[in-house]
């Protein structure tokens, strides 16, 4: 138990102001909620990938407001709840306001901010023929309704009803990924789908009071609840306290064994804490057995698999982005758009040269990218990739560009995937439970990793690309992003060159 020095005694339940985000944290894990309120400094900082997702949600929310002309934004932020509550009350009482954005409501020390509250008229049977009510609308950048959305709307509905707001329904507004952007202005009615979740939310709303009571009672305790970290820490969202809660776990903690939550729980219930403690009679997959053995293993077919390439060997990697709001005509929300490629070309004598492409303009890059790529790939030699991702990009380009379809399909026929070669014929203890190139490269080529790069993973590359092309106006910053993107994509393909060499050197060693 972690005793908090500043809280030596319990506090009475009900003395904590919760928000809807805190309520959702509490549904995921009571310990997460406790730490968010009392020891926020123990949380890891949100990485840039997480921030990019949040920024995307903000962008979608701002677009959604355009569907409600005349709507008024409550501008007071989370640091000024009293002002936000006062301003919201003013807008509720103003019959000329058709919608309120970010309205603030409080009931039983639970404060919520509502994305959109739309004024509607309801017929009544009393002396008045109609009265005002409000439609609660939550806006998400998701493409489907998720369970967490129902909980989100349930706590909002509970607070609004408690605050005396007459609700005409609870709705979700989300991205319609079947919408095809035709160019010009975005058709927001087509981009943003609306789901009436009133009945589903009403069924869940009844659970809110008991859940809140449990959370408040837990928060009145002098220490966080003793909850073991496991899969719930990553669902529905990754918890920022993961590093803190796992800091005392052994290096070969059983949670790191591949195989998912089921295998972990089977072992945990038997009191097994480390991978090394797994008994010999416990059934493991081949990959799990490799992890448990914790030894380098060289498969008997590794040399033959590596020798199946044809020279010159091209090493290809794409970088892409997936905007929630389409940027180019005839594209859909979240459609994968390739923006960059890198190709390291090795001839039979071992000489290597590098070629690359990066679109720097706010235009659809796909045709120019494909033309330059085909020129670089030529018609001879294997095209080494790492996973099936490059194949899927080439396939999408072939579908989009009929004039280049035959050449792109010919390139697809030359693809040679290094990932399954490693998965089937080689294992190193430093891989842990992952065959990602970020795990494999440090084990086999320790002098070449991603630690010196400004961009170290693909989602950040996509975020940087969007900023460089569509947002950034400072040419110095744009140039910094350009160099960082080129270095990252180049590192991916150079990594494949060096991995092939390192693996070939391992074939001289006896297999174990």
Uncertain residue segments: 1-10
Main sheet properties: 7 strands, mixed
Number of separate helices: 19
**What percent of the residues sit in helical stretches (DSSP H or I)?**
40-55%
CATH second-level architecture of the largest domain? 2-Layer Sandwich
The CATH fourth-level homologous superfamily of the largest domain: Ribonuclease H-like superfamily/Ribonuclease H
As a whole number of angstroms, the C-alpha radius of gyration is 27 Å
In terms of DSSP E residues, the strand content is 15-25%
Q: Provide the domain count.
A: 3
Shape: globular
CATH class of the largest domain: Alpha Beta
CA distance, first residue to last residue:
44 Å
Q: What's the CATH topology name of the largest domain?
A: Nucleotidyltransferase, domain 5
Number of strands: 14
The secondary-structure class comes to: alpha/beta
Please, what is the average pLDDT?
A: 93
